[in-house]
Amino acid sequence: MFPLMTKISLFIGHRGTLVDYDENTLEAFGIAIKSGANCIELDVRRTKDNKLIAFHDKKLARITNDNGILKNLTYNDVKNLKTKIRNQKIPLLEESIDYITDKTQMIIHLKDKGIEKEVLGLIIKKGVLKNCIIGGRDLNKLIRYKKTFKPIKICFNMTKGRGLNLKEFIEKGSRKKLKNIPDMINLRSDLISNQFIKVCHINGIKSLAWDFMGYKHPLQVINRLIDSHIDGILFDDYHNLKIIRGN
Questions:
Q1: What is the mean pLDDT of the chain?
Q2: Terminal CA-to-CA distance of the chain, rounded, Å?
Q3: Sequence spans of domains, the chain
Q4: Residues 139-157, mean pLDDT to the nearest whole number
Q5: How far apart are CA 92 and CA 108, in angstroms?
Q6: Closest CA to 70 of 60, 85, 83
Q7: pLDDT tens by residue, 64-120
Q8: Is 14 among the catalytic positions?
Q9: What is the 3-state secondary structure (H, E, C) of 33-93?
């Protein structure tokens, strides 16, 4: 039995979904929202001619039928690509924001270096600062964005992050001695302990869990985290999102 009502506040579609649909496409975002997501996490990279697109990998082969490297392609090249599962196009970041913003909030994960000014500039131009959370692996940079672009929120991806590791976070956070405090911390599910969640809450940080694809019974893992008072789950599979939300 799985709960129809849960204690988490953030039901996040991880790249929309990683199952049945092509990740980081408008179609994937749509099915996640339809399944109960109240936030969409998406990745952003840029093309050779500096167009911002929703895409996770540096290489094209896993998602598309092309074997190239994204940074070597112009946007005109990218427009001609199709995704593997459902023959979808790779959307611009602007298209993704336009599609998501009137439906729910979003976490925009900066995958390429040096794109933050363009991304934040677009968010400001669209007037959606309050609806966007900027995610990344460099805590110090994220803190600078938060100070400069109020009232934007930031999500630190600690698993492979720079500026604060898990051990330091537990030690300093337990004593409320953290120098920089993000709004959210996203940590791989197998690294999350009750202590991590407790330290997040002591410091007013929302705790998020990602990566459930490798588990034989991911719903059991998700429910254990919910029972431990995790604040949000990044759902890889929209079916699990529907089950947890009782849709």
A1: 95
A2: 14
A3: 10-43+118-245
A4: 95
A5: 13
A6: 60
A7: 999 999 999 999 999 999 999 999 999 999 999 999 999 999 999 999 999 999 999
A8: yes
A9: HHCCCCEEEEEEEECCCCCEEECCCCECCCCECCCCEHHHCCHHHHHCCCECCCCCCCCEH
Q: Which of 56, 201, 229, 239 is catalytic?
A: 56
Query: Is 56 known to be catalytic?
Result: yes
Looking up tokens 């094209």, which residue turns up?
60
Query: Which residues sit opposite 157 in a β-bridge?
Result: 186
pLDDT at 174 over 90: yes
Taking a C-beta distance cutoff of 8 angstroms, is the pair 154, 133 a contact? Answer: yes
For residue 6, what pLDDT is reported?
52
190-240 pLDDT, tens digit per residue, is 999 999 999 999 999 999 999 999 999 999 999 999 999 999 999 999 999
Range 10-43+118-245 has CATH code 1.10.287.3510: no
Task: Retrieve residue 220's tokens.
Answer: 């059991």
Residue owning tokens 């611009």? 92
Long-range contacts of 66-71 (CB under 8 A, 24+ apart): 70/45, 71/45, 71/46, 71/47, 71/112
132: which strand partners? 106
DSSP state letters, 171-228: HHHHTT--SS--SEEEEEGGG--HHHHHHHHHTT-EEEEE--TT-SSHHHHHHHHHHT
Percentage of the chain beyond pLDDT 90 is 96
Q: What's CA 136's distance to the chain center, in Å?
A: 9
Q: Which of 215, 213, 197 is nearest to 205 (CA)?
A: 197
Q: Give residue 207's identity as a one-letter amino acid code.
A: S
